[in-house]
Design goal:
single chain, 171 residues, mainly alpha, Arp2/3 complex 21 kDa subunit ARPC3
């Protein structure tokens, strides 16, 4: 029964990431704040990583990163690589040192999204353009803050899903 729960839970996470990707890419659904829209799959992957073991967390991070790679222009695989490593680390950190609660979810969201958007800015703007501070201030910080708003909601959604379908990982 636990294996069936694990499969259903995994399919629900993939479906959630797909729906969030479609929502974030739908023009006009979320009002632009300072010209940016939220990236919903990134906080969802970070929260899922809190609730799963390292391997599954890394897989969901790679899936979320691939969705971002498909949605953005740039290097294919960049977001998948960074999110896979981040989700692996988040899962390991939560299993070893942290408790799973809303405060931890917000703190993990702050750190993981900061690393993700910081690495985007670093590799896509800092090394390529003459005034990278402008892109950071006008584009990346508002996108980071707008995306951060959705972390508590995604935590509650995924925590309810994890509790309704327990698996061997002990989440």
């Amino acid at each position: 029964m636990r294996d069936l729960n694990r499969i259903i839970r995994s399919l629900a996470y993939v479906l959630e990431l797909l729906v969030l990707f479609m929502l974030q890419e739908t023009p006009g659904l979320f009002p632009p704040v300072y010209g940016v829209r939220p990236v919903l799959v990134l906080p969802a992957a970070a929260v899922i990583a809190m609730l799963e073991d390292e391997t599954r967390a890394m897989a969901f991070g790679v899936i979320a990163g691939l969705f971002c790679d498909f949605g953005y222009s740039g290097m294919l695989g960049f977001h998948a690589l960074v999110m896979g490593v981040l989700c692996f680390g988040v899962s390991l950190l939560v299993q070893t040192y942290l408790q799973i609660n809303p405060v931890t979810a917000v703190l993990v969201g702050i750190a993981a999204l900061g690393i993700m958007f910081g690495s985007q800015w670093l590799f896509f703007y800092y090394f390529r353009y003459s005034s990278p501070g402008y892109a950071l201030k006008i584009h990346y910080i508002p996108k980071y803050l707008y995306t951060l708003i959705f972390v508590p909601l995604l935590y509650l959604l995924n925590k309810a899903l994890a509790e309704s379908l327990p698996s061997n990982s002990g989440a």
